């Protein structure tokens, strides 16, 4: 197996040869080197969503890169365009829309599970979330689910937003929520847990532009110390924040609903303040007229 540093150099050199944007301009290769060096000398299965080139060009730069640096890997590529011209004995491409959960499920039932899944497809938030939610169960224990260019969560052209970033259901939101998922065993509320799927993820590595979720081997899991402590903490949490539970659940279910509710409350409050202010102004005029009259 090469050293991490040599593998990074290899990814860089081969990536440039293949014209892969993972290296230029994105410079993700040091991050891939951190996590994928162990795969070099072994057979495994890698799936990448998004072959490249769209309908205009052949694409396939990253599939070439992976097939060169992982000589024993079986490589699968999904795209909405037919890319079978790239198929070899170790590269197989399929026309599958990553936003279609049924098509994804049919695909993984036949070809999964995978050691590594990389989402470098449409970069639209709903497609990315459909793929993540549908495919993460098909990553083997110890394997990776990689989200490339997740910063598109901040850009309207991909159906994201910077202004409304805390009120949209985006990959960035789920990367943040995966901290809660990793710590599921320490969450007190079963209702809150029910909104957080047990993906079996135990590691989250977030780099500029690319994030790695790693499935656990179910080895070590944090636990709440004992039943008495648990009961006490549940009670305290209820006492402090129980009154707001319904709004917390609404928010976690769909942060966008809260944005609408907050806006409606704000509009109603402003209208009420205006009504009170104009009523006070009328009262002041009447009072001063009364004073003058008396
Ligand atoms: C950024 S390119 C992929 C680049 C490639 N992974 C690489 O590193 O060389 C994105 C690809 O995703 C494909 N794509 C767009 N929408 C898709 C969808 N809904 N499902 C699957 N693939 C999609 C496009 O056709 C395009 O070829």
TrEMBL record:
Transmembrane intervals: none
Enzyme class of the recorded protein, top EC level: transferase
Translocase keyword on record: no
Source taxon at top rank: Bacteria
Biological process according to GO: methylation
E.C. number: 2.1.1.238
Gene Ontology molecular function, alphabetical: mycinamicin VI 2''-O-methyltransferase activity
Alphabetized UniProt keyword annotations: Methyltransferase, Transferase
Protein name: Mycinamicin VI 2''-O-methyltransferase
Species: Pseudomonas antarctica
Source organism phylogeny: Bacteria, Pseudomonadati, Pseudomonadota, Gammaproteobacteria, Pseudomonadales
């Amino acid at each position: 197996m090469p050293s991490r540093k040599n593998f990074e150099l290899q990814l860089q050199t081969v990536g440039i040869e293949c014209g892969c944007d993972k290296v230029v301009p994105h410079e993700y290769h040091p991050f891939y080197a951190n996590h994928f060096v162990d795969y070099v000398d072994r057979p495994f299965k890698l799936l990448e969503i998004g072959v490249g080139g769209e309908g205009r060009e052949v694409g396939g730069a990253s599939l070439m890169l992976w097939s060169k640096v992982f000589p024993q890997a079986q490589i699968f590529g999904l795209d909405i365009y037919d890319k079978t011209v790239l198929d070899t004995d170790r590269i197989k491409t399929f026309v599958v829309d990553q936003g279609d959960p049924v098509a994804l499920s049919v695909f993984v039932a036949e070809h999964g599970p995978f050691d590594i899944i990389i989402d470098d497809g449409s970069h639209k938030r709903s497609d990315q979330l459909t793929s993540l939610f549908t495919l993460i169960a098909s990553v083997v224990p110890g394997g990776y689910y990689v989200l490339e260019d997740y910063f598109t969560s901040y850009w309207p052209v991909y159906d994201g937003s910077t202004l409304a970033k805390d009120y949209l259901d985006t990959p960035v939101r789920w990367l943040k929520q995966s901290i809660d998922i990793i710590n599921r065993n320490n969450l007190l509320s079963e209702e809150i847990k029910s909104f957080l799927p047990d993906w079996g993820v135990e590691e989250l590595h977030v780099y500029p532009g690319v994030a790695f979720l790693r499935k656990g081997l179910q080895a070590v899991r944090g636990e709440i110390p004992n039943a008495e402590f648990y009961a006490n903490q549940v009670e305290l949490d209820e006492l402090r924040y129980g009154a707001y539970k319904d709004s917390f659940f609404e928010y976690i279910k769909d942060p966008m609903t809260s944005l609408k509710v907050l806006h409606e409350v704000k509009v109603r409050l402003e209208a009420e303040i205006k009504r009170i202010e104009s009523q006070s102004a009328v009262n002041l005029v009447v009072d001063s007229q009364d004073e003058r009259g008396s």
